[in-house]
Amino acid sequence: AQKITQTQPGMFVQEKEAVTLDCTYDTSDPSYGLFWYKQPSSGEMIFLIYQGSYDQQNATEGRYSLNFQKARKSANLVISASQLGDSAMYFCAMREGQGGSEKLVFGKGTKLTVNP
Amino acid sequence: NAGVTQTPKFQVLKTGQSMTLQCAQDMNHEYMSWYRQDPGMGLRLIHYSVGAGITDQGEVPNGYNVSRSTTEDFPLRLLSAAPSQTSVYFCASSYLPGTGMGEQYFGPGTRLTVT
Predict the structure, then answer these.
(1) Chain A contacts of B35, Cβ < 8 Å?
(2) Tens of pLDDT along B62-107?
(3) Which of A36, A54, B79, B98 gives a 20 to 30 Å CA spacing to B112?
(4) Contact status, residue B5 vs residue B107, Cβ threshold 8 Å
(5) Closest partner residue to B108 among A44, A52, A104, by Cβ?
């Protein structure tokens, strides 16, 4: 079974609008972390935002926010006021394991296209 | 800081050849890992290390070896290259989660083609 599921292979959004990228996860570990990374066409992986399993509030970083619904095991990324430079692949990832066995598991990604 | 560096950027191998992908970081991170990225598959963990002298297998370790003799370096060895190992390889490093959120810093990637 997949541990990280991103159900939207591709998404389109108009410039200046908000967009939500979906991510659901599966773990039985009570302590885990959720990450979002951006991969532009140039290929580098850029860290965007992090949410810990015990964090009470949803994480925010500038125009990025993470809609964390623990009971539903979802960690959707919200990008507000989209810009053309936001066009990229977006990966959701989960860190699980403790005591030296930590692993990062990635979803298959969502390709976001921002239209002018 | 150079961050995470990887060499080479591009490599073409013939089936059966061996080679080592180099990875180094200058952030004193304990945790280092190797991923491969294939179209439509996201990133898959090959091997990882939580400190010098300690390595463990990830999701797709077959055909690859690693060692961690220093904190800074984490080379990935392909023992006998196969066309199925054609991929983009990323090295990443981070502090251990207990010392922070543990976000991983990625190198620029190595694009490997095996013919």
Answers:
(1) 106
(2) 999 999 999 999 999 999 999 999 999 999 998 876 655 678 899 9
(3) A36
(4) yes
(5) A44
**What whole-number percentage of chain A has pLDDT above 70?**
95
How many whole angstroms separate alpha carbon B49 and alpha carbon B56? 6
Residue B4 has pLDDT above 70, yes or no: yes
Measure B42 CA to nearest chain A CA, in Å. 4
**Contact: A102, B88; criterion CB under 8 Å:** no
Contact A105 B45 (CB under 8 A): yes
Three-class SS of residue A3? coil
Give the Cα separation of B21 and A115 in Å (integer).
Answer: 38
